[in-house]
Write a structure and sequence with these properties.
Length: about 210
Amino acid sequence: MSKVTEIKHPLVLHKLAYIRDKNTGAKEFRELVHEVSMLIAYEVTRDLQLEEVDIETPIQWTKCKTLAGKKIAVVPILRAGLGMVDGVLTLIPAAKVGHIGLYRDEETLEPVEYFCKLPVDIQERDVIVTDPMLATGGSAADALTMLKAKGAKNIKLMCLIAAPEGIKKVMDTHPDVDIFVAAIDERLNEHGYIVPGLGDAGDRLYGTK
Ligand code: PRP
Ligand code: URA
């Protein structure tokens, strides 16, 4: 069953408050999303494999641990997931980046696929999927299905805000995928928006409304 981690760190909660604020403009919104993504990525990467190395300090030789070098791919769900990529890459700069294009039909709330370009060796990589909003969960569930169809196995999903409905959808359809979120909100409204949420993440990131 998926493990759900809600990051309750004070820095995350502080920044998330300003991300939610409707008076926060696109520039500051983008910066805050970048910073919070970095903090969530810290948790997402907590179980990266390590290997022992011998290091000579100015005092003596000692055994240390460094990353074992497992390959990682970051895969944003376009558009809004793009806003989280640089935060993750700040911590793991060697990761490759794939892109999955999905938008939610405003009437049916069903995801519509329009793009998929992944690293050729995606099946060998640990995959971190980014999307700020997990609402009905339809987009995330479809993106995870697309990734698995291309051979991806070890996948984690990182979001800023999730509705209980979206978490349930991912847990039901992809129980092998762990979910990391900054906050789990109350519910969805009649238009499928997360309440209280932050509004439309893509529009707020790119100033399109
Ligand atoms: C938003 C968000 C998710 C999706 C969540 O994208 O970034 O991808 O909605 O909703 P769901 O869980 O109900 O599927 P949107 O479809 O607005 O596209 P955009 O990122 O291009 O704005
Ligand atoms: N997509 C968003 O951008 N915001 C929501 O609240 C729900 C879906």
